[in-house]
Specification:
Helix content is 43%, strand content 5%. The protein contains 23 helices and ten strands.
Length: 730
């Protein structure tokens, strides 16, 4: 027996010697009177309807033949190519050339049927196909189509673009990002109601941070070499490093100018920071193996934990979304998941590069949050390397890593370290020039929260603020000591210790991380911190610059969210199992509501009553008077709005507010208490100050209320009324 090639691409068996003469009726292959087909054909492509296991047939002489071992006419071949569900009108050229009166010869085994009552080609004995269709219903395909098949339509570029855009719009990450943004707008409302006139929480530190973004953009646009020597704190150098800089937001500072644009920029970044925190924690939980609803719980609890409401005036603390996002990207690039472990086939060096860049960007927003993140990241790398080599050396586990992945980690780690070093140089310089800027362990003790802080909510909490007023009253500095991450989060994390998608070992690891983070958040309150916080303060470079240990609660909140995500994910999987057993397999409305209940509880507990006060308007003199300039009265809270007002011209100003007060600025404030007099005027001239603005609306009850209108005889200065502002030209 030889095998030819059929037009459809499959093999076409032929026989030599005596063959059965099979003649097909011209009417389209009608069945014989006894119910058998005219021929035994295989379906298109040579696949037998019975799964490729057709039984042997016998010919008229009783000789056994393999399935499909019969002669086929060209018409048969054309019919074999025709799918059964296609029916085309016949043309005269499709008619069979053999006489319609001839019949097939019956096989010696009994009319050519299989032992299961079907013909050798899988058709029932009543002349129908296996799916119940008459063979006459299957029309023959046009044989000329094989010579010139119609080309498949190729979509245009706009069609491909539309499909890709549609897939992108309904992608999980797109929906998660949009959901995070919408939730951020709602949860921070009314931040965007009057974004050019108000600031969240208060207008002191937010004014400083609005100025920081504006200054970084101005310096990059005009003179990048002067970035660290800002226009505030004149004539001090390195003044931009007197506090966390939010340097990562410098691209936003390139857009707009003036105080109102600075306020608008701040409010937009305030909302986006919440959205990024939600999205980053969601992505991290998903990468580790949590379900969508479980990851949503982790994301919302991380961004809207009640303790963060007291930090609404500190954008560098709220801007923490780069931490979980960078960890998620690095884990994805290394093919690692908490639930599924290491999967080498999922490695991707592009995600590794992106993860390191996001980590470097997070570090550039400030060391208050970025420095602990850097140490956590470095510790994670060291532990991962030790585990990797231990498994290869001691356990003989050969798992591929790849040269490209190693290079990505090396280059990305160097970029991250380089950004850290470049950011640290100005701060070390400031520490040398201003020794009083360094914190002592006594300063840390003043801001160290007690254990009851973890169950005390800030006043801005809509749910618990009023109820916890008594508990806050006993805290030495409650704005930094109300560290409640949420009772709903506590309950979900506790449930995650007993019912979770994570393994027992993973749950214990997460719990240990929570306890370590909470212990460090207590600073020196945990048995004096001698074995917890103090060693870090003494030996880790830069750790002594962290004034408020309570902000380490970020890590406890993130790990509690992952524990909660494990519990919610396990619950949602159980709901799916129960739903699959129902008829129809669809969850009831109550089951759907039950899966959303944890998310709703976390959202409700994160609602706030944060005030959004109106920022004092910029005096007209700040838009026209040049520097060096001093604005009186001067103080920490007075000077921060003055820094914001200076964003129109960025003239040099003596005023400034930061985490510490330079001694020279303290001397200026002390000497100018009697301004205008000869001593204060001579001292300001020595510093190079040319103009002094006195705000009449702010001097009630101060010595300036009388002295600013005193005669100027012998001082060689001039006084000019500019609305509610007095301008003294020195």
């Amino acid at each position: 027996m030889t095998t030819d090639q059929s037009p459809s691409g499959g093999p076409r068996p032929t026989t030599r010697g005596r063959r059965d003469t099979r003649i097909q009726a011209a009417a389209g292959g009608r069945a014989d009177a006894d119910g058998t087909d005219d021929q035994a054909r295989k379906p298109t492509g040579g696949v037998d309807p019975t799964g490729g296991k057709a039984e042997a047939q016998t010919d008229a002489a009783g000789k056994t033949k393999a399935p499909g071992n019969e002669t086929r006419t060209p018409t048969d071949e054309a019919k074999a190519e025709t799918p059964r569900d296609e029916a085309k009108p016949k043309t005269p050229g499709d008619e069979a050339e053999t006489p319609a009166s001839d019949k097939d010869k019956k096989s010696a085994a009994g009319d050519g049927k299989d032992g299961d009552g079907k013909d050798g080609d899988g058709k029932d004995g009543d002349g129908k196909d296996g799916d119940g269709k008459d063979k006459g219903d299957v029309e023959k395909k046009d044989p000329w189509a094989a010579f010139g098949p119609a080309p498949e339509p190729v979509p245009r570029w706009y069609g491909r673009l539309a499909r890709r855009t549609g897939r992108l719009l309904i992608h999980e990450w797109t929906l998660a990002a949009l959901g995070s943004l919408v939730l951020a707008v709602l949860m921070t409302w009314p931040a965007l109601r009057y974004p050019r006139h108000t600031l969240p929480h208060d207008y002191w530190d937010p004014s400083l941070q609005a100025w920081q973004m504006a200054w970084s953009g101005h310096a990059l646009r005009t003179d990048p070499a002067q970035l660290w020597h800002s226009n505030a704190f004149f004539p001090e150098r390195w003044s931009f490093a007197f506090s966390d800089t939010l340097l990562g937001y410098a691209p936003a500072g390139l857009i707009g100018s003036g105080p109102q644009d600075a306020l608008l920029r701040y409010n937009i970044m305030f909302v986006l920071a919440h959205a990024l925190a939600t999205f980053g924690a969601y992505v991290l939980a998903r990468q580790l193996g949590a379900s969508r609803i479980g990851s949503a719980v982790a994301g919302v609890s991380y961004a809207y934990a009640p303790w963060l409401l007291s930090q609404a005036g500190h954008l560098h603390v709220i801007s923490n979304g780069g931490i979980p996002l960078a960890l998620a990207m690095l884990a994805r690039g290394h093919g690692w998941s908490l639930r599924h472990g290491y999967r080498p086939e999922r490695r991707h060096d592009g995600w590794v590069y992106t993860g390191w860049l996001v980590a470097a960007w997070q570090l550039s927003l400030g060391f208050g949050i970025g420095l602990p993140f850097a140490y956590v990241l470095a510790g994670t790398v060291v532990v991962a390397m030790l585990i990797w080599f231990a498994k290869r050396i001691f356990w003989r586990v050969k798992r591929p890593f790849g040269q490209r992945l190693f290079v990505a980690d090396l280059i990305g780690g160097l970029i991250f370290a380089g950004v850290g070093v470049l950011m640290a140089i100005p701060y070390f310089t400031v520490a040398q020039l201003h020794p009083q800027a360094e914190r002592s362990i006594r300063d840390i003790a003043a801001f160290s929260p007690p254990a009851n802080s973890f169950v005390t909510a800030p006043a801005e909490s809509r749910i618990w603020g009023g109820l916890h007023e008594g508990a806050r009253s006993v805290l030495p500095w409650h704005p930094e000591m109300t560290l409640l991450p949420g009772f709903a989060l506590y309950a979900l994390a506790l449930g995650g210790l007993f019912f979770s998608i994570w393994t027992i070992r993973q749950r214990l690891f997460l719990l240990a991380g929570v306890l370590v983070a909470m212990t460090l958040s207590m600073g020196t309150r945990f048995f004096g911190g001698d074995f917890t916080y103090v060693p870090l303060f003494d030996h880790l470079p830069g750790w002594n610059g962290i004034r408020t240990p309570g902000r380490l609660m970020i890590w406890a909140t993130l790990l509690l969210g992952l524990l909660a995500a494990g519990a919610v994910s396990a619950f949602s999987e159980r709901v799916r199992e129960v739903s699959a057993q129902r008829i129809p397999s669809w969850p009831s409305p109550w089951l759907r509501l039950a899966t959303l209940l944890p998310l709703l509880l976390v959202i409700v507990e994160g609602t706030n009553t944060t005030p959004h006060p109106v920022v004092p308007p910029q005096p007209a003199a700040m838009r026209t008077v040049g520097g060096p300039l001093l604005v009186l009265p001067s103080g920490q809270n007075h000077d921060q709005p003055v820094m914001l007002w200076s964003t129109t011209r960025f003239q040099d100003i003596v005023n400034g507010g930061s985490g510490f007060t330079p001694r020279q600025l303290a001397d200026v404030r002390q000497v100018t208490m009697t301004f205008p007099d000869q001593t204060s005027v001579d001292y300001l001239r020595t510093l190079g100050v040319r103009n002094v603005l006195v705000l009449r609306d702010e001097i009630a009850g101060t010595p300036w209320e009388v002295s600013v209108d005193a005669p100027l005889d012998g001082l060689d200065i001039t006084r000019e009324e500019m609305g509610s502002v007095l301008l003294f030209r020195l």
